[in-house]
Amino acid sequence: MTGAVVRMRAVQKVFGGGADQTHALDAIDLEIPKGAFVSLIGPSGCGKSTLLRLIGDLTQATGGTIEVNGKSAHRARLDRDYGIVFQSPVLFDWRTVERNVELPLEMSAIDRRARAERARAMLALVELSGSEKRYPWQLSGGMQQRVAIARALSFEPALLLMDEPFGALDEMTRERLNLELLGIWRKTGTTIVFVTHSIPEAVFLSTRVVVMSARPGRIIDVIEVDLPQPRNDLTREDERYFAFVTRVRERLRGGDSAQVAAKTRAAAM
Amino acid sequence: MRVSSIYTFAVLRAVRGPLSFLVLASALALVWEVVKLLGGEQTDAWTPPFHWKIASDLNMPHVWDIAAAFAEPAQRNGPPLGLVLVDAAIFTFREAFGGFVIGAVLGLALAIVFVHSGILERALVPYVVASQTVPIIAIAPVVVIWLQAGWLSVAVISAYLTFFPVTIAGLRGLRSPDPRALELMRSYAASPRDVLVKVRMPAAAPYLFAALKVAATASVVGAIIGELPSGIRDGLGGAILNFNQYYISGPPKLWAAIIVAAVVGIGFFAIVRVAEAIFLAGRLGRVET
Question: What's the confidence (pLDDT) of residue B12?
Fold first, then answer.
């Protein structure tokens, strides 16, 4: 049983109690292999962010088991096994870029010199060398999000959790950051769990797309995206890429695969 | 922008305030004299068109008479009033500074306790608010009885006025971080102390400085009032009381003491303002002018 970074069994999440109960997630079984790039996609309110937060121990499951790196999600958090990137960069405006990246390291026993070195390396990784001494407000939205990624990676975590990290950016910036993220993923070998509501983004980035249904959030399908690596701008023009996009879209739109198959047959006649 | 130039810029922005204040003070003096010109007392050269009681030399001494009063001896054969008032100002400032520090530390400590304990917050905040509805004039003699007349009791009376804005603004500021910032800290397995020192306190800094500016001026008021029941004659409170009692014999003296008291308050405010500008340099839109 080696290779799985995340292992979820019959995970359930219910918010509130009594009449106000909301079933956010139900019967979630999910395994994320080491080094995978897994996207969670689904309609709004399907609990994909909640699923990510469960893995990150930012909220607790009401049923089932979650293992991260073979231990409880809680233990993994205390061991600093993952970095988190939110939709907004959440940078600290009183800290320079490099001091923002150093922040997680300040919680550990790493000395100042090593900290600065690591911050520089991470900023080089996200192609922000030269911006170390600038303040967050002096950067564009895309650059700020790159700082957030550098910060999340500063611990060199085994798992990177990203909650719609490029959702607030314009299309051009988003596509460029998608490519950069793939580069970082290749270089670091980090396992990435990526929440998005963009089908093309999910297909382009992922080795595996987890399609979820609306409340209560369930996993409808897990699609292996075996497009060749490394992916680049040409990937977006590949016929098989479009096929995967169509497949994810159909899975999102309607029920089970038999239904889809029937519809496709009907259309063909 | 280089970091050093950010600091220079911040300090420049900070002195712009005092500069415009000087312009305003001159304008005020001008208005004062125009009022006297229109309704003041008759001289050999000029008969004012109106006769306003408030503009008499007793009620509104000439600006130059007030200025001249600084150079004249406060008492027969004594040192000039200016020197006496500067000594008094330093004395009062010392008390005010003590009150400011005690109030700031106490105020911030309360805010930190409240932000960590909802129970203590609900239990104590009503008393904190109620404390401010009791007039300081009523509290001051009690403090003097408890601590005995002296520098410390005046500082405590002053702190009574200064801790409140710091607690209220501090509480707001400590709660101001984005919830996701706190979740990030959680993902770093940060200790509560790290969360306080690295996120909550820096986020609260702009709020705290706003409160400290209020506290700086309030501390001077508190010190002046605190001197009265303490029977302390060496400070501005003593001077104001004294010149008030003997107003008839020298109206400009009281005005001179009032001006010095105002200058102490403004000066203290300006010191906090400059500290704020330096401390918050680099933060966009956080430094007001």
Answer: 76
B288 Cα to chain A: minimum distance (Å): 16
pLDDT, tens only, B22-73: 899 899 999 999 999 998 888 888 888 888 888 888 889 999 999 998 888 8
Quickly count: other Cβ atoms within 10 Å of residue A121's Cβ. 15
Q: How many CA atoms lie within 13 A of A229 on its CB side?
A: 12
Contact between A74 and A95 (Cβ < 8 Å): no
pLDDT digits (tens, 9 = 90+) for B90-128: 999 999 999 999 999 999 999 999 999 989 999 999 999
d(CA A241, CA A200): 8
Q: B191 CB near a chain A CB, below 8 Å? A: yes
Helical (H) or strand (E) element with B199:
none
Query: Using an 8 Å Cβ cutoff, are A39 and A223 in contact?
Result: no
Q: Is A91 on the interface with B (CB under 8 A)?
A: no
Residues from chain A that touch B286, judged by Cβ atoms under 8 A, are 93
Here the tokens at position A55 are 């893995």
Contact criterion met (CB < 8 Å) for B282 and A96? yes
Dihedral angle computed from the Cα positions of residues B84, B87, B91 and B97, in that order, rounded to the nearest 10 degrees? 120
Region for residue A225 given its phi and psi (left: phi exceeds 0; alpha: psi -120 to 50; beta: otherwise):
beta
Rounded Cα–Cα distance for residues B142 and A62 (Å) = 57
Q: Per-residue DSSP letters for A173-206?
A: HHHHHHHHHHHHHHHH--EEEEEES-HHHHHHH-
For chain B, say whether A137 makes contact (Cβ under 8 Å): yes
Give yes or no for a contact between B161 and B218, defined as CB atoms under 8 angstroms apart: yes
CA distances from A133 to A72, A99, A143, B265, B277 (A): 38, 8, 14, 37, 19
Strands (DSSP E) along chain A, which ranges? Answer: 4-15, 22-33, 37-41, 63-68, 71-72, 82-85, 159-163, 191-196, 208-212, 219-224
> CB of A193 within 8 A of CB of A224?
no
